[in-house]
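Reviewer comment 2.1 asked that we show a complete input and output for one of the modelled complexes. We chose the (2R)-2,3-dihydroxypropanoic acid case, as it is the one discussed in the main text.
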Amino acid sequence: MTIKPKVLVTREIFDDVIEYLKQHFEVTSNQSDTPMDAEALAKNLAGKTGAMTTLVDRVDAQLLSRCPTLKAVCNIAVGFNNIDLAACSKAGVLATNTPGVLDDSTADFTWALILSTARRVVESDAHVRAGGWKGWYLKQFLGADVHHATLGILGFGRIGRRVARRALGFDMTVLYHDTQPADAATERSCNAAFVSMDELLARADILTIHIPYAPATHHLVSSRELGKMKPGAILIHASRGGVVDDAALVEALKSGRVAGAGLDVFENEPNLNPAFLAMKNVVLTPHIASSSEATRHAMAMLAAQNLVAALTTGTPPNLLNPKQV
Ligand code: DGY
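Response of the prediction step:
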């Protein structure tokens, strides 16, 4: 009988993905979905060769020093700021993420935030449910038009480009900013034009952010940037907490400089800045932009395939630290 490597799945995933993993590994899975703190994670990883982690599991040098048998950490997320790649490389641990499979769902959800924020869908739904609707009147829940507005996309990677393509049907002017311009064919297919960061902030009626979190992008949008936004613009954020300075955003919303915000990600999740909760012009969702049934399943399966490849061939498709390991 061959002894299968032992792996840990840190949070609840889909049953068929567990079954797939069981073909290759002895699987310990947390199907009760109890979040693990650093101590619990270290204890559960004892003797394991691989782990399927989520964005709330911190994989750093301290954890790795307690898990000498670990060879692979496969994140069920495209973002990997919960994993210290340098520490993984030093410990000889392969790290992977799940790029690509969530782009369309995240772009769809960005649009859900754009429309619900601009047209006050959540606020008016709450009004109706609370029995506040007494009849039709002309100035009821006046919102901002999305069609023919200027959409500013900060971060023009896979998701930003899909958000742009969805704007075609709304006859929008689409501007974007990134570290470098996209090629001409991509710009044409997205009907999008590259501008400087300051021009993007000054011209966008709706600014949507699609930037991964890293030390270099910490508070990329803070008081200075918010102060340069077109007065009355809307901000949409579905990338990663920490890219926006939430305290500065609260002030910009309070002052009216930013008219509304659609936010799926926050600093210090799930303990978001409480000021947001009192604001009617803010739509708040719990980091679910990729959460369609099909996409979350695809993310979990891709992470599982990465884990199988990492522990069998040593070359998983979505390896994040190829050279150093
Ligand atoms: C990701 O994949 O990084 C998402 O934020 C997870 O929902």
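The CA atoms of residues 142 and 226 lie 23 Å apart. We note this here for comparison with the apo prediction described in Section 3.2.
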